[in-house]
Amino acid sequence: MTTTELPLVDLGGSGTRRAICPHDCPDGCAMTVTVENGVATSVRGDKEHPFTRGGLCVKVNNYTERVYSPERITTPLRRSGPKGSGRFEPISWDTAVAEVAANFNRVIAEHGAEAVMPVSYLGTQGTLNGLNVGDPFFNRMGATVSERTYCDSGASTAYVMSLGPTAGVDPESLVHSRYIVIWACNMVSTNLHLWPFVAQAQRNGAKVVVIDPVKHKTAARADWHIPIRPGTDGALAMAMINVIVTEGLTDADYVRDHTVGIDELTERVAGHTPEWAETETGIPAQDIRTLAREYAAAQPSMIRIGVAIERHSGGGQTVRAISCLPGLVGAWRKPGGGLLALPLWAFPVNWDALSRPELRPEHTRVINQFHLGRALTGEIPGDGPGVHALMVYNSNPVVVCPDQERVLAGLAREDLFTVVSEQFLTDTAQYADIVLPAASQLEQLDVMFSWGHFYIGLNRPSIPPVGEAVSNTELFRRLAAAMGYTEDCFTMTDEAMIDDAYDWAAPALEGITPATLAETGWARLNLPAADAYAPHAQGGFPTPSGKQEFLSAAAAGGNFVLPLFRQGSNEAQPGEDVDPLPHYIPPRGPDEAHRLSLISPKSHAFINSSYGNLPAQQRVAGEPSAWLHPVDADDRGVLDGELVRIYNELGEILVKAKVTADVTRGVVMASMGAWRAQTKGQSTVNAINPTEFADLGHAPTFNDTRVEVERA
After folding, report:
1. Closest Cα to residue 101, out of 154, 137, 47?
2. Cβ atoms of 609 and 400 closer than 8 Å
3. Does 588 have pLDDT greater than 90?
4. Closest CA to 133 of 148, 142, 120, 151
5. Rounded Cα distance, 304 and 322, in Å
6. Torsions phi, psi of 573, nearest 5?
7. What mean pLDDT comes out for the span 258-277?
8. DSSP, res 9
9. How far apart are CA 505 and CA 483, in angstroms?
């Protein structure tokens, strides 16, 4: 513990403040905030930050419009009309907290603590106010453990099985890559600040390949776009392995010295020829051979995977197969070579200090949020109680959860007590009994790691709270006091929480403290420079063998979800048997009634559902639409711009058709993130997405959805 006292900021004054973007985009941008007499007048990218480089994306470059929106919730609210009506009356914080505590205690007395369920994710990604901020409170209560596996859970499970919890590649080192494969990632829309490093490599002569069913903004800038059928990426990876090992394209010394299981892997892929993969993926066999040969020959080669890679039935094994490729060709030997997934592993975060799993009673029930609809409508199997109280923060489950109609039916229950902490009256908040005003990033203290680079940043308040908004940390301090919880974690200041949140004595943080961050705003972790960073040039993987494991030892423990995605809990893990070798699991096939494959990627202008209500972002996003290949449109008599009905056994959505050859034949693309208010109360895309898990890490199968399309 560093017992830091951070210098105060004059929140009523004027000047330029340093801040860090709050969202769960990989870029973790550094921002400068211009303040005049206590009012933020502009937010810009920090020009001095080596990754942000002065630019912000369309989502946050007008962040002050979000902070001062006339629709912002600025006082606690109590429902005054039917659930879903959006009718509320203002109340005091004391009254709101007392009513929340009284209802939680009532539900616990009547049904037991597991009848209370939290629902949250990454509406803010701050270390203090983000993913784990409510975990100590609900662990102490003994409430149902909320499993949150929207992004990267399955990929992380697969990655750890193959490579261990390694940060892997420094994203800035991509300037040295000679061959870059961007796989299931629209980087320009969802990882914008990485693109300049790719573009620099491209100017230096690197070839950039994008593998995706859609010719999106990133694919349009690539040297080669390879359209692929959704959910068949594992077949492509297995065929690439087949070509590399059968044609002798491996780095034999690296494979011998720094990997485990090459003989077993070679046997496994024997039948996975490019011709076999062509029938699965729709990619010509010769293109698969060319991709494998070029990838192996041009060193250092790099693969960047996006979160979409895990979102189908075999997503985990797909990541395991892709993870084999850098080790086979020795890509890890040089800066700019390897696999880029989550640099997060470089940050010495003290996850248990954030979640406090020791406060949770043993054998507490776990419910995944994809099953929220079933939980709220009494359809979860087992002996536990139904869900009678719900607390939502950092999330908008009506939009981001699948099974939307069932979620809405559950939220409409008169016997369900629902409290929502929010900045706006989202589709979910419309159904709340109590709504609590949440602070924006400009009004709270936090320390920020990144999913996408090696810089840690301190976000200090730039302005006083708007109205009566409070940070999540303060919210849970107030709720804990009302519930009578006296453990030290419920009375700690934000500064003390920062002290506990990281191992500040770790080598990666040598020379970096909260106090130094208060002066500089951000700092690069104490790691070698990007030009020299090749952590696995000589192996040294954090796996049981110390090597890259084509044949995974960790698979013997069965399927698992990393505890940080489930309130620190390691109990009631999925536990299904896992093949120690990667293999191909095909996506759900078409049937007579549902011949098209639906994918629902992130919008260019929204982050999940954040910003879906703001006019500037709505103008960029346009009205909700679905991309359809001209042949598929012609087969159905659909014209460009027409209203179409997309449906399956789960429900339907109504959107405008965009007929374009930029989407692969047989595929429909409808971006997620739009609010029901944008569609005049109609369902949005997650109404027709499945609740089934992928093979590893309870990842979603949002890109393994079968639908049909017709004119509305």
Report:
1. 137
2. yes
3. no
4. 120
5. 10
6. -70, 155
7. 98
8. -
9. 35
Average pLDDT score over the chain: 97
Q: Determine phi and psi for 397, rounding to 5 degrees.
A: -60, -25
Q: Which two tokens stand for residue 425?
A: 């009256």
Cα(49)–Cα(61) distance, rounded to whole angstroms? 16
Tokens standing for residue 613? 């209500």
> Which DSSP letter does residue 11 get?
T
Q: Is 221 left (phi over 0), alpha (psi -120 to 50) or beta?
A: alpha
> pLDDT exceeding 70 applies to what percent of the chain?
100
428 contacts 610 by C-beta, under 8 angstroms: no
Paired sense of beta strands 389-393 and 417-422, if any: parallel
Which residues sit opposite 36 in a β-bridge?
39
pLDDT digits (tens, 9 = 90+) for 155-186: 999 999 999 999 999 999 999 999 999 999 99
What are the tokens at 255?
A: 């494979």
- For residue 30, what is the enclosing H or E element? strand 30-36
- pLDDT mean over 359-381: 96
- Listed in sequence order, the DSSP H helices in 178-251 are 187-190, 195-203, 233-246
- Give the 3-state secondary structure percentages of the chain, helix then strand then coil, rounded to 5: 35, 20, 50
Residue 44 pairs in a beta bridge with: 32
- pLDDT for position 3: 62
Q: Which residues pair with 627 in a beta bridge?
A: 658, 669
| φ, ψ for residue 119, nearest 5 deg | -135, 120
Q: How far apart are CA 84 and CA 425, in angstroms?
A: 10
Burial class (CB in 10 A: 0-12, 13-18, 19+), 7: exposed
The rounded distance, in Å, linking the Cα atoms of 586 and 604 is: 29
The CB density around residue 68, as the number of other CB atoms within 10 Å, is: 15
Residues 6+ apart with CB under 8 A from 203: none
Q: Comparing C-alpha atoms, which of 341, 335, 346, 350 is closest to residue 524? A: 346
Using DSSP bridges, classify how beta strands 389-393 and 116-120 pair: parallel, antiparallel or unpaired.
parallel
| Count of all residues that appear for the chain in the document | 712
Residue 385 CB neighbours (<10 A): 18
| CA nearest neighbour of 296 among 226, 223, 244 | 244
Q: What is the model's pLDDT at position 2?
A: 57
pLDDT at 382: 85
Do 146 and 370 touch, CB atoms closer than 8 A? no
Kindly state the average pLDDT of the residues 484-490. 98
The pTM of this model reads 0.97
Q: Where are any strands of DSSP class E within 279-397? A: 301-305, 338-340, 366-368, 389-393
**501 φ, ψ (degrees, to nearest 5):** -75, -20
Question: Worst-scoring range by mean pLDDT, 329-343, 365-379, 586-600?
Answer: 586-600
